[in-house]
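Sequence only, no structure available. Ideas?
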Amino acid sequence: MSVEAADGVVDAFDVLVLHCLNCHTCRADPNQMCPDARPLHDIWKALWRKDLRGDLRKV
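Reply:
I predicted one. Tokens follow.
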């Protein structure tokens, strides 16, 4: 399955979404995150926090 981002740029968030669409860990237990998705989730959270602080500008 290929990844196609709405903004034309495939980033960690797009990869995380693709992974989550194909993973069933959290469907079995919503309080659990798949260990494969944890690094991507952490990267996305860090980028989101920077954006909220104004350090990272959305295009």
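The mean pLDDT is 67.
Hope that gets you unstuck.
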